[in-house]
Amino acid sequence: MPRYRYECTSCGDVVMVFHRIKEILTDCKKCLQENTMKKLLSTPLAIKKKTAVNKKVGQTTKEYIEANREILKQQKKEAKEKTHEPS
After folding, report:
1. 21 lies in which domain range?
2. Does residue 65 form part of some domain?
3. pTM here?
């Protein structure tokens, strides 16, 4: 269900309500006045995907895997060079 913001013209209370498109909120629950709620305009939520130009799907993921693989090799090498005392 869509969400809508309403403002009471009497007390100035702003509320966010989820309801159907054809429903309208008219009465303020805070000051109990009738026919004082005014629907406010709101910006629609638009989710934009950030994609790199000229890259195939999964190419970025493969690049990160390769970069981390090199880091892991370095860490393994450093761990082997360190001496550990047995407990």
Report:
1. 3-40
2. no
3. 0.48
